Structures are given as structure tokens and as C-alpha cells.
Please model this.
Amino acid sequence: MDFSVFLDAEKLIAAFGVLGILGLVFFESGILISAALPFLPGDSLLFTTGLALSRDILDVPLWLMCLLISAAAVAGDQVGYIFGRQVGPALFNRPDSRFFKQENAQRAHDFFVHRGAQSIILARFIPMFRTLVPIMAGVGRMNYRHFLLYNVIGAVAWGTGLTLAGYFLGQIDLVADNLEKVLLLIILASFVPVVVEIVRARRAKPAGTESALP
Model:
């Protein structure tokens, strides 16, 4: 696949369309295998979708696209939560495989434990964690009503926020003329929290603060 499609609004819309965009949002939000694919478009996909809307490349009302993206994100996290509640504990006791790493699960678990229910919102903006944290919530049998509330808040903040950012910033000539650089910056920025969590986890281990999965 030509991954440059993710850096060009017209190519992306031509390749995926509305259903493809929603499918990718759902996939990255709730399907465990996506955690092994950290370079899925994610944040840049939403920004580019907003840009496509501002240029009428995508013939969908802005409010409707934001609603559909948020709904797909909520649905994805629901699947992740249910998966974690039903089969998570057994899965996380298995050895590492191509699509699952105990180390990644441990980081997501620590992130969830240290930040409580708010981690459901914060994880939305962190690649890989947006997939694993809802599963951890299911494994830990987090109160479903609380999970649903934070799930909706996070989905709307992430899905609508980045789409609107793409829509309005995309109308600025400087942004539109340097789209590839802007998207690259968004991708790099989205991985900053991951690096921070890795560094914090490594510093915490000598102090005996490493936690175990349930």
C-alpha cells in the first residue's frame, strides 16, 4: 500500500471514502490487533478529514461527519471494553506474540491505574493506548456507566476536536500549502505522551512501583 495516501486529503478520500474513515476510527479504537500497528493514521486521519470537508472534497456536512466519527470511536471503545471483560484476563496471561506485547499491556494498565477514569479520555489522544486502555477498563471491571460516560466524552473531544481543527486550519493558506509538514508534526506530537509514559515507567521500576496485570 502507498502510505502517502494518509498525507494527501484527495488520495485518502478516494481510497477510503466516508465508510473507510469510520471503519479505521472504529478499528483503531477497539480492535486489539491495531495496538500492534502504531503507525495507523489516527490523529492525522481526522485532521485530513476535516481538511477534505473544508475543500468540499468530501460531500458531507461538517456536523454529521463529526457525529459519525464520534459514534465510530464510541463503538470501538465499547468493543474493547466488552472484549477485556470477557476474555482479557486469559489473553494477557499469554506469552508475547506478533500482535500482542506484555510490555505494552503493562504500560496501558499502569496508565489506567494511575489516572483512573480520566485515562479513558486521555488515552484517546495517545496512539496504542487508545486501543489498550478500554480493554484494561474491561479487564478491571470498571463500572460500566462510568466507562460509558468517559468514553463518550473522550470520543467527542478527540473525534470532533481534531476534525474541526483540520476544517478550520485547513482554510489557512500557510497550513494548506505545507500539509505534509503539518501532518508529520501531528503524528510526531501524538507520540510524545507515549515516550513520556515509557520514560516514567522505566524510572519507576527501580523504586519498586512496577505493577502487575490483573
Q: What stands out?
A: The mean pLDDT is 76. The two ends are 38 Å apart (CA to CA). The chain has one domain: 3-207. The chain is about 70% helix and 0% strand.
